[in-house]
Amino acid sequence: MKVSVIVPVYNVYDYLEKCLNSLVNQTLKDLEIIIVNDGSTDNSMDIINKYAKKYSNIYAYSKENGGLSSARNYGLKYATGQYIAFVDSDDYIDKDMFNKMYEEAINTKSDMVVCEFNYVYGDKIVRSYCNLDYTLIPDKRYLIVPPMACTRLYKKELFNNIKFKEGIYYEDLELNPKLVKYTKKISFINEGLYYYVIRSGSIMKQQKFNNKLYDIFKVLESNKKLLAKDYPEEIEYMYIIHLLRSASLRFMEYDNYQDHLNKIVDIMKKDFPNWKNNFYYRKSSYKIKLICYLVYHKQYRLLGYIKRITGK
Is there a contact between 231 and 277 (Cβ–Cβ < 8 Å)? Predict the structure, then answer.
């Protein structure tokens, strides 16, 4: 088997068929699809059973709800492919995604292949350009691109050393940077092959504050301890993008956001006082620079106003 695709499912009845259709119509035919029903309480299992009955390369499993990492790790136990991929069940993929990524892996003898992705806002599709041209050094490039597990094709042996950490948010950011320690070669495909659907009910779009959002601090600290010695510029950029920019915007969705943002600013001042001189940050867009500037200088009201009028 060339590729095993693991699909965790939890209450995505309205999205699941589109996801599975994109998998069963892949141009790479030597493919097994491992669906893990992670304790869904809607009718997702009905769709899973329908597809498993129709397609011989679909293998369906059910378990008690344990979260995304738990479902992915569960699926890994049954994967037989030379390479492993993950697709979230509310997203979908290009029909040539795994054919292109597998060919790239084989032709370049890569342990991992990373592609780009597209945001899907209803009927609108927006290509995400993932800074792949900021550096041509593969391991450094790998550390600065978005850490989405679903945009990667992994050599199966990588998961002999490490698994997704369960019970936390930011599981992709927790795991993927660490894999740079276990890879000899990483390749990139500059095509948006994955379609990431933005929906209100997703983990990171909840109306009520969840304390697991604090996991961002622990995850980044863990990466810093492991990688900062060899990759200081990349780790600093990781803090800029994932903490100063993204986490700040996320925290602003909730009450008492000032306390969270103040903590972020304190960390940046203490650990990365010269962050504005970061090589990758200086190449970043004006929009990223504006957000980081406003947060760092505690211009929260102005940032909130800009966030409201832009809808971001």
Answer: no
3 state DSSP class of 23? helix
CA nearest to 171, candidates 195, 139, 204, 199: 204
Q: Report pTM.
A: 0.94
Rounded CA gap, 150 and 89, in Å? 11
How confident is the model over 208-217, as pLDDT tens digits? 889 999 999 9
Domain chopping of the chain, boundaries: 3-204, 206-310
Q: Are 99 and 146 in contact (CB under 8 A)?
A: no
Q: What is the 3-state secondary structure (H, E, C) of 71-95?
A: HHHHHHCCCCCCEEEECCCCCEECC
Distance CA 47, CA 53 (A): 10
Residue 269: exposure state from Cβ atoms within 10 A (0-12, 13-18, ≥19): exposed
**Integer Cα distance of 1 and 5 in angstroms:** 11
What tens digit of pLDDT does each residue of 36-74 get? 999 999 999 999 999 999 999 999 999 999 999 999 999
Q: Sort 240 into a burial class: Cβ within 10 Å, 0-12 / 13-18 / 19+.
A: buried
Q: Which CATH architecture has domain 3-204?
A: Alpha-Beta Complex (3.90)
